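ok so I'm stuck.
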Amino acid sequence: MAGIEFDRQMFTPEAEAQRRAQPPKAMGAVFLVLVLGLAGFVGYKIFTQASQDNAIASANAQVETLQAQLADSQKRLDEFQKHHKAVKPEPAAPVVQAPVAQKKSAPAKPVYHVAAASALPAQQKPLVYAAPAASPSVAGPNTVAIQSELSANHEAWQATTDRLADVVGVVGQQQNELSETREAVNQLLSQSRRQALPFELLRGNNRMPVGPVTLQLKSVDSKGQRYSVCVYFEERCIELKDRVLNEVVVFVVSKNSSPLELVATKVLRDQIVGYLEVPADKQQ
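replied:
not stuck anymore, here's the structure
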């Protein structure tokens, strides 16, 4: 086929004209969109401001209404208090009986009057004014509150009195216990008050009085540091056999007597040295 030639100039102006016409249309659409957005924004601002103004006006109206109602309630309360205020009853005026007018009649006969022996004029009896009793209806809520408070105070006072009585009983019991404890402590102190009586015993038949008893040395072992002692009390011997150095030997000479303590501090060849602890009241 032969090459077909097209007239390019026929198509070129239209394309260029379309290209040139398109930018103004796009700008117009953008401008229209901006105008509509601005108009919507302005309308929204106007609507928001109008809504706020309406809300403020409504709130002010409600506040004024509440203030008016509060003033009305205060006024009614004042009127109610004035109406129900206790009014003191006025004292009743004393009733004075009017003297009965005597009928004057012309006596037909002479009338004799008997006078009293006293020449003093007759004294009228003074009128005694009796205060009207308080009506039960006059007693207001204050009287009821005072009576309830008095009752509560009386109950509290009674409870306090009972509690004090219990405390006094407990204190008395504690005092008795303290007295008993004090006596026991004094007895223990009297028993604990002891005195050491030193002695030196020689082996043999010699007896040495030490406090309430008499001691006699029976045997001595200087190597083993041992000894034996006979304790005489009322001619009876209590033999302490095979005791060592510094040993505390506790013994009782009678049934109801306090215990005695014997300690040897030195054990020599034929002699021991030590002390005897006795209660202070048993010392001779």
